[in-house]
Inverse folding.
């Protein structure tokens, strides 16, 4: 059995193939248990602890610590201690649907198999496979890494990163940031004023309640603002943007986009591509911003709606006859004008 104390300074302590006891002491230390059933204590400082193979007990103690578990789920006991601590499974690959990393219940469990203890952690680095990650009532950073992950933030102001794979991200309560990353992801902001970034792939973004910011990114995305005054940006690809309730701002970006304001006083901008703009209920502003190339203008379809509201239609850098304004009646258009940018 190896017993080592780091003392003062930033130390690297390595165990052996048997049962070891490592104590970092002061400083920002690195503790590696290697083989055997080890006990690792970081103590003071921002420490990195890796028990290695065997059934280990790791305690971060004071500071912002990272505890690495690269031995899958093996009845280990991990305790981050005080500070903003991270449990890191990024060196292993869990099978999709089999593993749940739950900060609220302080457990990591395999369906029908082992369970290990994870106490006092704020952040999670997921594995290279698919798993379910659940946050706490506090502020968490939850990273899925590889695989098709399901990540639930819980209450608190959380940051959820799907990374690679087709992920499902649920912000829950609080003002959350959701990043889909690569793959075809579904992002649900739920309650609070959330920011949703689709990233790469064909993503579905649902703002739900609150004043949300939705960015589709690359791919053909669907953005639903939900209630509240939301900002929706399709960015690249052929996107579908629905403002839903509230006074929303919709920007299609490049590609052939479909923009629907819904209820409320909305602002819709098609930008590049052949876009369809539908104002819906409320007094809306519809902006067609296509430019003429080689004498042929791109054509937008603008539908202010026919519900008695007074809408404003602005057409930039293109002749009016190259636009089509549809609907049962145009009597609800307060002003239709052609402007230069």
């Amino acid at each position: 059995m190896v017993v080592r104390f780091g003392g003062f300074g930033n130390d690297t302590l390595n165990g052996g193939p048997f049962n070891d006891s490592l104590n970092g002491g002061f400083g920002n230390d690195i503790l590696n248990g290697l083989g055997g059933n080890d006990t690792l204590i970081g103590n003071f400082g921002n420490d990195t602890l890796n028990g290695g193979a065997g059934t280990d007990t790791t305690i971060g103690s004071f500071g912002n610590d990272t505890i690495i578990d690269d031995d899958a789920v093996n009845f280990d006991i991990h305790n981050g201690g005080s500070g903003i601590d991270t449990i890191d499974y990024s060196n292993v690959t869990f099978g999709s649907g089999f593993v749940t990393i739950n900060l609220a219940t302080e457990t990591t469990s395999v369906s029908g198999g082992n369970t290990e203890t994870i106490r006092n952690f704020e952040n999670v680095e997921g594995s290279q496979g698919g798993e379910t990650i659940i946050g706490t009532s506090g502020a968490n950073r939850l990273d899925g890494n590889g695989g098709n992950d399901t990540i639930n933030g819980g209450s608190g102001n959380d940051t959820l990163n799907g990374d690679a794979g087709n992920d499902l991200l649920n912000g829950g309560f609080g003002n959350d940031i959701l990043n889909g990353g690569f793959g075809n992801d579904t992002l649900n902001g739920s309650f609070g004023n959330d920011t949703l970034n689709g990233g790469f792939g064909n993503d579905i973004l649902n703002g739900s309640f609150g004043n949300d910011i939705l960015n589709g990114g690359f791919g053909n995305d669907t953005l639903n603002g939900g209630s509240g005054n939301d900002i929706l940006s399709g960015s690249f690809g052929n996107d579908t943007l629905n403002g839903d309730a509230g006074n929303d701002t919709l920007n299609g970006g490049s590609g052939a986009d479909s923009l629907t304001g819904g209820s409320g006083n909305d602002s819709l901008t098609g930008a590049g591509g052949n876009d369809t703009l539908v104002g819906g209920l409320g007094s809306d502003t519809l902006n067609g911003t296509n430019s003429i190339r080689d004498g042929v203008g791109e054509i937008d379809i603008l539908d202010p709606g026919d519900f008695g509201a007074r809408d404003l239609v602005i057409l930039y850098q293109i002749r009016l006859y190259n636009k089509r304004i549809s609907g049962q009646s145009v009597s609800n258009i307060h002003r239709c004008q052609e402007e230069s940018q």
In short: Residues 290-299, 316-324, 326-335, 337-341 have pLDDT under 50 and may be disordered.
